Each structure stands twice: as C-alpha cells, then as structure tokens.
Amino acid sequence: METRSNHVLVGSVVLILLAMLALFIVWLARLSGGDERQYDIFFKQAVDGLSAGSAVNFSGVPSGQVKEISFWAPDPSLVRVRVSVKPEVPILEGTTASIQGSFTGPSTVQLDGATKGASPIRCPEQNPKAACPLGVPIIPTKQGGLGALLNSAPRLLERISTLTERLSELLGDRNQNSIAGILANTNRLTRALADRGPEIAATLAETRIAIQKAGIASQQIGELAATTNGVLAEDVKPTIANLNKTIQAAGRSVETLDSTIGDARPGLQAFSKKTIPEIGQLIQDLRVMSTSLASVAEKLDQGGASSLIGSPKLPDYEPKKK
What we know:
membrane; transmembrane helix; Mce/MlaD; single chain; Phospholipid/cholesterol/gamma-HCH transport system substrate-binding protein; alpha+beta
C-alpha cells in the first residue's frame, strides 16, 4: 500500500510541475509578444518565397514577422497575410505593404510610406466589421519592385513574343523588296536634291531678298500712315471747326425763324377766320352777277333792246278754216 501511495504522490507532483511549466511558458510567450500589434495584409499577387516566420521590415529596418498565410474565402484571388510588428513601429495612415523578393533568400514584407503627423492605422469605432473583418487593422498593398516584375513577366513575355512575330512579318521577303524599293527611291531623291543644290540656294537667296523688300515696304507703309495721320490732324481740323461754326449759325437762323412765325401767328389766324370767308362770299356774288349779265346779253341778242323793257308780243290767233 505504501509503494502504491508513493507512486500516486510522485505522479501528482510531476503533473503539477508540468502544469506549472506549461503556464510559465505561456506567460513568457504572452510577456514577449503581448505588446506586439497585429495587422492583416491582402495581397492580390503571388506570395512566392513568403512563409510564416518571414521578416517584416519597415523602411528596411527589421520590425516584426509573418504570423500566418492563408487564402481569403470571400475572394479567392486574395491572399491574407497576418503580420505582427513591434509597438514602436509607426504604422500610420499612408503606410503600404509590398513583397520584397530575392533570388538568393526568402522574401520579406516591406512596409513604408508613413506620413509625418498622420494618425495610426486602426479599426474604426463605427462599423468595424466592414473595415476590419477579422478584428485587426488592414494595411493596404502596393506592387513591389521584383514582385511586380515577376507577376508581369508572363504578360511581358507574351508581348515580346507578339512583337517578334510582327517583326518577322515585317521583315518577310515581300516586305524586304518593298523596303529595298523605298531605299532606292530615297537614294534617287537625295541625288536629285544634291544636283539641284545651286538652284535651291539661289531660290533661298531670292526668297531672303523678297522678305527684306517686304520688310522695307511695310516700314514705308507705316511711315505713310503716320504722314496721313499728320495731314488729317493739320488740314481737316480747321475745316471741321468751320463746319461746326456753320452748323451753329444755321441753328440760330432756325431759332429766329421759329420766333418770327410765332409772332405772325395771331395775324394769320385772323386772316384765316375773317378775310377768307369774305373773299368766298365775294366770289359767289361775282358768279351770280356773271350769270345775270349772261342772261341780259342773251335777251339782247334775241329781242333787241325792247326785250329789256317789255314782254315779247304774242302772235295773233287765227281760227282754222273748215
């Protein structure tokens, strides 16, 4: 019984010591990494050479490590990388992440672009699930130098292949003949220009002389315009002054004529109201008198002077014989 009791006691003590050791290890892990801050980075590119434990550098300074790499279920084209960095690293607004590849070693996560005076990257208080779906802030990404080159290498090779095919088509047998003809025509044109060199030089000289003459003519036109302005200023001004005086005199004459008509207006009104009706009556009386005189003249012609004194003699009546 005593041996069995000793074994149980020893086992219990060992279990207690193992539990205390495990708690101590967990405490040390929390003590060493409890102050580190974690961020998620969503890369839309291959993360070749990157693995858990890879270094995280801020502007080239070692600042943390990669904790986890996994696919992002809502969007399979994205790769989620969880990183932890030291608390003194300035992860501010404007900071971006990229993958720095290497031909000789593992890739690293490069952080840079922090702006002085900017606020730290953190999850917003309102609607944090939308900005931080896994509960930690997200650092935006940018294409790294070597990573971008490697990612664009297939497209670059495809374009180079297309360019090579088009160059092959351009330099085919038929196109080579065309290019040879173009070069031959160019040579003939060059020789013709060389033969016409003296004529071209003479033409350029004549053109230069014509331009000089045009400049002289424009200068003379300017002088003529200045002279014309002077003549107009000296000769036309006195004429305009005399014309102004004539216009003023005509204005005064019109004013005098208006005043004269105003003075004669009462007499004209009396003439039109009294004299004109009397003249009309006189003309009517003269018409009556002329009618009477015409009647007297007619009587004198028909009956003589006696017709003016008495009535005309009636003819004798004679009865008709049966």
